[in-house]
Amino acid sequence: MPGRTAEKGPKGGFTLLWVSSAFAEFAYSTSLIVLPLIVLALTGSPSRAGIIGFVDATAMLLAGLPAGAVADRYDRRTVMLWCQAALVAVFGSLALLLWADAVSMPALIGIALVNGAATALTMAAGDAMIPSLVAPERLSDAVAMNAARTYGGQLAGTSAGGFLLAVKSAFPFAVGCLAHLAGLVLLLFLKRQPPVRPADDRSGAGGRGLLEGVRWIARHPFLRVGLACATATNFFFGVIYFIVIASARISGMSTGLVGLMAALLGVGGLLGALAAPLLQRLLGGALPVYVVLWAFVVLTAGIAVLPGSWTPGVLLGAVAFVAPTANAFFTTQQLTFTPDSHRGRVVGAAAVASGGGGAVAPLAGGIVLDLTGRSVGLLGCACVMAVIALLTTLSPALRDVPEPVADASPEPAPAPAPDTV
What's this model's pTM, rounded to 2 decimal places? Predict the structure, then answer.
């Protein structure tokens, strides 16, 4: 079959990418918890501490569409190498500044900007690269393994960040610098991933190129409906999570117990990602999406009405357990259905849409909690999600799974056996 077969890298290519990205996930999660705490210690202002997280998230969202265009226009391994090198530099610089007690708020904001933008570029290039590194029948497993890596990195990074910060403020970023350096070294062993651009594709640069991923999604009902589901689910999950955590704290639950309850979410997500390949094979087709949406509705209603201080954490963990199966199905179909020349931009557009829903969720959750209270707010979210689940179930778009595309490549050639994950 014509396509990017010539680029289906050496055996072990996916493993190299996965481990390199795991180091990056660990460092990013460490910075996400440590940076606000450093700002809080530096300024004593909770609002300024919140600015850091906002800057990081905003940089990641704004870089989403350009990141996809860059991933389609340039060698993807090279893009990741430059991003890792930039992160090695900023993490190392911050570690030195903290060691010398010379850090400032502008420096921290600058580092958050680079961290968010470089992470967006790395994610777009890495995700778009996956189909060229694994056999088609193993793509779904690879996507699920990436989800497990993300949850594992979050759990390890946040735990290590708090511990290292307690020892010395420079240590989290020194360790993060070493993690990014390890990821960079691993990428050097990965085969180059030059872009595949059909002769009639003139949209690689400029504003048209940036929006090509949006247009591709808009033209295909399967991608449109799937992304709408992902965006709505991310948004409502963020709203529900905020309501649960904030109301638990307001009711007098200690921060330690709140943290443990939140940790159940990460554990559920990690276990769900590991179980996703088996669950996909058992359920088949788009059934994982329907199961997740309706489970989300039932579990949210359960959080609203069932007694017990640990019940919300357990049920949130259950939601997180089932979510990776639906995500793996949709992401696998998205990567298979999208030609290689557009994968970076489609991945970037999807990340902006779903990430944007999650970014505004805490604000919406706070408003809902203030206006309606805990139980009414959660039941309202469950009702809206029920409508979304019903419309999705009745829609023919997800039932008609599109056929894989054959990528146009200028010089197709036989390739070595791809990694079997």
Answer: 0.74
Selection from 94, 102, 106, 253 nearest residue 165 by Cα: 94
Q: Please, are residues 236 and 365 in contact by the beta-carbon 8 Å criterion?
A: no
Q: Which helix (H) or strand (E) holds 355?
A: helix 340-372
Q: Which carries the bigger pLDDT value, residue 206 or residue 410?
A: 206
- What values do phi and psi take at 204, rounded to 5? -70, -25
Beta-carbon contacts of residue 203 (< 8 Å; ≥ 6 apart) = 209, 212
Model confidence over 74-123: pLDDT tens digits? 899 999 999 999 999 999 999 999 999 888 888 888 888 999 899 999 99
What is the distance between the alpha carbons of residues 360 and 377, in angstroms, rounded to a whole number?
16
Q: What is the DSSP string of 262-278?
A: HHHHHHHHHHHHHHHHH
Q: Which two tokens stand for residue 381?
A: 């979210």
Q: Are 21 and 126 in contact (CB under 8 A)?
A: yes
Alpha helices in 63-138 (DSSP H): 64-73, 76-99, 105-129
Alpha carbon distances (Å) from 278 to 25, 148, 281, 329, 391: 25, 14, 5, 12, 27
CB atoms under 10 Å from CB of 101, counted, come to 8
Report the chain's mean pLDDT, rounded to a whole number: 80
DSSP codes, 8-67: ---TTHHHHHHHHHHHHHHHHHHHHHHHHHHHHHHH--HHHHHHHHHHHHHHHHHTHHHH
Alpha-carbon distance of 383 to 393, in angstroms, equals 15
The amino acid occupying position 148 is A
Any idea what the Cα angle at residue 417 is, between residues 415 and 418, rounded to 5°? Answer: 100
CA 339/CA 344 separation, integer angstroms = 10
